[in-house]
Amino acid sequence: MTLDAGDTFGRYELVSWLGRGGMAETWHAQLVGAAGVTKSVLIKKVLPEYADDEAFISMFISEARISATLSHGNVAQVFDFGQVEGEYFLAMEFVDGKPLDKVLKRAMRSGLPALPIPVAVFIAMEMCRGLHYAHSRTDSSGKPLGIVHRDISPDNVLVSYEGQVKIVDFGIAKAQLLRGFKTAPGVVKGKYLFFSPEQARGEEVDARTDVWATGVVLYELLCGRLPVDGPPHVVMMKIAHGEIPPLSQLRPDLPEALNRIVLQALSPDPAQRFATSHAFGDALAGFLYANHPRFSSLSLAHLLRVLFRGDLLNEGRELAVPDDFLSELKAWRQPVTPDQTPTVPHLRAIQTPRPSPTPVVVTRESQEEEAPDVPTAEIAPVRRSRSPWVGLAVGSAALLVLGGGIWWTPFRRAPEVPRGERPTVAPVVATSAPAPAPAPEQPVNIDAGIAPEPPPPPPPPPEDAWSETRVRKLLDDVYRLGKSNKELTRAAKLVQLCVDAVPDNADCRLAAGLTYERLRSLDKSVSHYQAFLQNAPPTDLRRSAVKDRLSALLQRKPQAQTPANEAELESSRSAVLMHLTRGRQKEALDAANQCVARLPREPDCHLLQGDVLAKMNQASESARSYERFLAFAPANHPRRPDVVQKLVELRATGAAD
């Protein structure tokens, strides 16, 4: 469906296109009611490439239903979700402001070293309030819903021109895990930097994962840079060992009390963090009002109005800012001594400092191009400048959460550099007028910050025609095909070429395992995962997640078909049909239940059970049976499309929880 401003989309009139993100395009729209009453909303329309992904759509609907129940001043509310001409959408609160990542970048471009301390602390405190509200939600019987955002980062926090702080996209991250992060170009590089250690390992997460991510956001707001940066495997190792530079050494004016609060939130051991976002927020509130008792949301509003004054004027708006705030802002811009970017040793959070190598700290400003401002805070993710090394490594971070539900991502491991051959990293210093230099014989990777050296002689061509470059290109093609369920068979043929040519290549084996799992060829998938574990080095961070995935697959392998099983299944079908034609639904259900008990991994037994339960109007139980059918049924099972549609309808109407 091609849309333009002024078009009607269901009940909504589209005002302007705002951007395109990893899973949706966004529109400013109006809900037109009776007597000409209108309400501004933000429409997130799921991208067409997601429409055929039954697992994503099912999860999207389930999570959207939960998100729509959230109503809190620090959470952007979801008003509506549904389907228009086959395209799914969310209608959510329109926030008149900017995303937090743009606020930070604009502040640093205006002369601030980062956000002023009270501003950063206030924003994080408000985030904690919204998160705690979501974390503590229960159902009608008082049972905790277990809501975890999973994707807290500055681009999922909106700040309004009135000083409100609102979190967006609750529940969306869980649905995105089913597709993998690589579906959103430019998004992968940033997201893994906010993973908690347990999230990176693919373990079950709870509210403390959001505490960690909020701590990372606050660190960046205060220091203008992330705690650690680099390829995923480097970042994850540093995070796992608590190697986070203390904020007070990156920002000398930072009080030690605040340094301790942030580092407690960033403890690699969840048990050592704040137990809840409420506790984290309380600690921040205690610090804020003890040191800045007059700070309020109006102070934040004034800062935004100053930073984005040009944007507002272009829209024909001018929001008032008092003179006393301008004086305070001038004081915030004063340089802090000593130098704000000292060489900083790694420190374990909340522990005694110990010397170790200087961390790589790169500001977001240096990584990103700022997108043009839009009149709303909801914008598409920004494409970042890309280092080839990082490009090879992003798969590592994605695989680290494979145990949490990722179905598809090209898992490529960053090449290991021998200890004696590691390059020396030097800072990249920008000058106003660099002297021209002769063109090098080999391209220089500017992003990586490698000190220029005479290029080594090119290695002799490998005897094996399957070079690393060729393998990488083939796996990129496998990934591209694998994004569509319709192209999975072609993807399998392609990845099999890789396996046949280089059977000891761990990346080929992993791609094959993922592809065959998508095709429900579980025996082949298990075989390739096992081969990956045999060939991947012990230090490969993907091993743990693959072991977990392998264990899960071995538990859900479908029932092996034997003549006896086929006879049992046919007998069950006949019995169910006979009882239903005679109006004996209870007896039909008994026959279907016996089929499931005797052949627990046979998809058609679960299908029989689901069909009978549906006839008995037992929607929740029927949905669970259909979900088990989808877990065991091959991709080409003739009833899969029908079952997926039934599940979508059940969840959309709220009949199945």
Estimate what percentage of residues fall within beta strands.
5-15%
Number of strand elements: 9
Distance separating the two termini: 30 Å
Kindly report the CATH topology of the largest domain. Transferase(Phosphotransferase), domain 1
Quaternary structure type: single chain
Measured on Cα atoms, how large is the radius of gyration? 27 Å
CATH architecture of the largest domain: Orthogonal Bundle
Helical coverage, percent range: 40-55%
Could you say which structural class the secondary elements and strand pairing correspond to?
Answer: alpha+beta
CATH class of the largest domain: Mainly Alpha
Q: Pick out the low-confidence regions.
A: 177-190, 338-464
CATH superfamily of the largest domain: Transferase(Phosphotransferase) domain 1
User: Average pLDDT across residues?
Assistant: 75
How would you characterize this protein structure?
The chain is an alpha+beta fold and 657 residues long. It has 4 domains: 8-93, Phosphorylase Kinase, domain 1, CATH 3.30.200.20; 97-298 and 343-388, Transferase(Phosphotransferase) domain 1 (Transferase(Phosphotransferase), domain 1); 467-555, Serine Threonine Protein Phosphatase 5, Tetratricopeptide repeat (Alpha Horseshoe); 563-652, Serine Threonine Protein Phosphatase 5, Tetratricopeptide repeat. Helix content is 45%, strand content 8%. Strand 3 (24-32) and strand 4 (38-46) form a beta hairpin. Helix 3 packs antiparallel against helix 7 (207-223), helix 19 packs antiparallel against helix 20 and helix 20 runs antiparallel to helix 21 (543-555).
